[in-house]
C-alpha cells in the first residue's frame, strides 16, 4: 500500500464527474451538481464536450478512497471558465498530522487541482473565474490568478497578449455574467 500524502492524493479529469463528486458539491454549495450539458443556464453555449471536471481523490490507510475536491472548467471560445471549486469540509482535520503538513506545504487540495489542470488545460490564453471568498482568493493568487476591473472576476494568463487583447477578453467574459 502507498503511504504519504503525495502517494495518497490523486487528481483525475472526467468528462462528467457526477458519479464521484455530486455529494461533495452539494455539501459545499447546497445546489445540484453541474452535469455537463448544453444550455446549463449560462448566456453562452455549453456543449458537453467543452466541459472538463477534475476530482481529487484521497486513499485512506484503510483502503477507502474518498473524493475530497472538485472543480469544473468549461471551454468558451479561446478561454476556460473555471467554477465550482470545492474541498470536503472535514478533510483537512481528518488527515494525519504529517500528511496535513505535506498537504499544506503543497498549498492544499484546491491548489493541487488547479496546478494539475494547468498542465492539461493550457491550450488557451487564459482561465477566468469568479471569486468572492477571501480564503479562496489567496489560493487563486498563488496559482497565478489576478483581479480584473470587474468585481469577483479573476483571470490567470497563460500567454503574453497585447493590453488591448487582454481587455477585450476580460470584457467578453464579464459579459457572460457569473459562471
What does this structure look like?
The model has no long low-confidence stretch (mean pLDDT 96). Strands 1-2-3-4-5-7-6 form a 7-stranded mixed beta sheet, with helices on both faces. It has helices at residues 5-8, 18-29, 91-94, 97-105, 109-120, 134-142, 163-174, and strands at 9-14, 51-59, 65-76, 79-87, 126-130, 146-147, 153-157. The chain is built from 7 helices and 7 strands. It is an alpha+beta fold. The protein has a domain at 5-127: 3-Layer(aba) Sandwich (Aminopeptidase), CATH 3.40.630. It starts with a helix and ends in a 5-residue tail after the last helix. Helix content is 35%, strand content 27%. Strand 2 (51-59) and strand 3 form a beta hairpin.
- Order of secondary-structure elements: HEHEEEHHHEHEEH
CATH architecture of the domain at 5-127: 3-Layer(aba) Sandwich
**Secondary structure tally, helices:** 7
Name the average pLDDT: 96
Mass-distribution shape: globular
Helical residues, percent:
25-40%
Low-confidence stretches: none
Largest sheet: 7 strands, mixed
Give the C-alpha Rg: 17 Å
Number of strands: 7
**CATH topology assignment of the domain at 5-127:** Aminopeptidase
Structural class: alpha+beta
Spatial order of strands in the largest sheet: 1-2-3-4-5-7-6
CATH hierarchy, class of the domain at 5-127: Alpha Beta
Strand content: 25-35%
